[in-house]
Structures
1.
Amino acid sequence: MEQKFLDSLKEAMDIEAHEINMTDNFRDYEEWSSLTYLSVIAMLDEEYDFQIEESDFRKLHTVADLYNAVNSK
Amino acid sequence: MSAAVPRRIIKNYEYTQYFPAEQVKEVVDKIGINERRFADESTCSSDLCYAAAEKLLADNNINRSEIDLLVFISQTPDYRMPATSIILQDRLGLPHSTIAFDINLGCSAFMYGMSVVYSMMQNSGLRKALILDGETRSKVYSPKDRRTAFLFGDGGVAALVERDERFGTSYFSLNSDGSREGLIKIDAGGYRKMSSAETVKERVVDEYGNIRSEEQGYMHGADVFNFVIREIPKDIKALFEYAELDNNSCDYIVFHQANNFINSYLAKKLKFDTSKIPSTIAKFGNTSSVSVPLTIVSELQDQLIGDKRLLLSAFGVGMTWATAIVSFHDCKISNIVEV
């Protein structure tokens, strides 16, 4: 479950060069931008039927925050 | 139907006066907008619509005295008053008995305009109606705000509507959510916050260094995207259910040309056959309410002969969103005019 989420997030953000971990702050990734943000939103909708407003998304910092938000729905 | 676009082509990959080329490339690759058309300083939405209307009237040999209704759709009108439709009535040589008014709504407005015109024609003696839909969005957004600098273009369309039993039934779903007024907006220049020296001053508006004035538009793209993926598929499914139709019963599906990323995602999510989805996003960009009819004129010329059923879907500023299932019967489409 956790690994699948990490794989999906990696793919959505087009990350190939490094691994990602639950404790990472995803905004620190070199690949993070307003454009990858859209891809992440699309992935969350498609794979988890999860939608989140920008104002709520701003409160999420780590990969774990995002994972927990998706699973708490 | 007919359309007019400005002659001037803006090539997005070369639109690098305010942002570095590699950043521009990243954005343009994602949104899929290669070119747009920009009207010059003296050309308004109404001028594009006027050119489209003249072409339509001439190509179809229409008697102007039979046009009983003129609806002009735009959020970039000539003046705050009078309504641009009235000026176009005179300019097009239509009779004083023509009913003319403007619809100010944004990207979903063409379907609203169709619905209003169809309703008005249903139970009245109105013979012919002209829907003119034009936008010069290039004049609305700041070229120094990367959230919007690469998206918008200009265009105008004209559609002639006639009432006849042979046209069959059309269906509309029109929606509004004013709680999201702040997603796409121009803050100043209306009567809530009137024009002043302050409102036209350019300023840095965020941590990315984007620059615009309060009289230029802004957009929270991510929230718009969120909104679209939540509401649009739902609305399309609901209208199909109501009409007892499905996507297989539609010959073409025309989405609002917002950007390629959104449209590809919607097509995938709705499992639509992409060969039925014409697109002009690469060559005209987002022309707001004009994008749906402009795509029909540009991509479906000679394709709407006989009986054809189209699904139209659009969303935008408001927020408003609209879905329509429209029957076309021998719809003649003129060549696009360049102004």
2.
Amino acid sequence: MDRVREPIRRAVRVSALLPGLYAWATTVALPVAAPHAPKSARLLAAGALAALLLSPVVALRGPLLEIGFGIYGFVGASLGTWMLLHATGTSLGASAVRSAFGAMAWMLFAFGWGELRARRQIPEKDPHVLPGPVLKPRKVWSLSAELILGLGVLGAGILLALAFRTSRPSHGVLAQSLALLTSLLTVAGATRIALERTPRELPTPAERYNSASSALALTIIVVGLGAMFWMLER
Amino acid sequence: MTRFVDMLSVLLLVLAVVAFAVGLNLLADRRDLLALYWVVVGLATLRAATQLLRPKAGTR
């Protein structure tokens, strides 16, 4: 490992280790601390912590060992702990807020395993880069494009938050997955609209109406049927 | 006219988000069928919003 890569590897380890510790404390350690939690679950939880803490140490022997301990060992042992707790009827999340923060920590833990680019390191100056002309962006984002994308992200955020209103356990997963799907579609749609609005050769309005005609007709039909049904029900 | 179509697509995007939000709200209020209906409305509206900007091949 060269001198440039070593600080990056260290940063990666710390950025995965700290959220991992927090995720373990909130979502694994707290449930196993319950009085009636089985001993096997406690042992496995301790194993998960050991795997996480050992990952930077074993990293000196190679990245595969680091990944084996830090990801497979830690996540696998945590999953095993949850399965054992679930089998004995122990609650996995006593507090919704704490569980939400735990979930955030798991997300940061996952991101922490990504590669980080070191400060002052310019990828183009890498000796392995193939020489060629500098690639320049073909388009420049306009303010309106950014506003539309922001609108899409805001809408997606609202949809994700609305899913938490569903309190029925049987419908909770459905609401979450539906919110995730619709928010992803919203961001994808907003991105497409934002990108297509940047200056380029657009088709004529008639062609655009023609292209959207089936989707527009479907919208009108569905809304019309709904309105008719609503009027009949009143 | 082009600007109007652009505005219409943005309006449809907003309406799609509103339809999705109504659907999720109705799901929380235990009105499952109505929730599904609004999600379908949202999907159709979102599809119309994106199709207005990127016509499929063969529609020109």
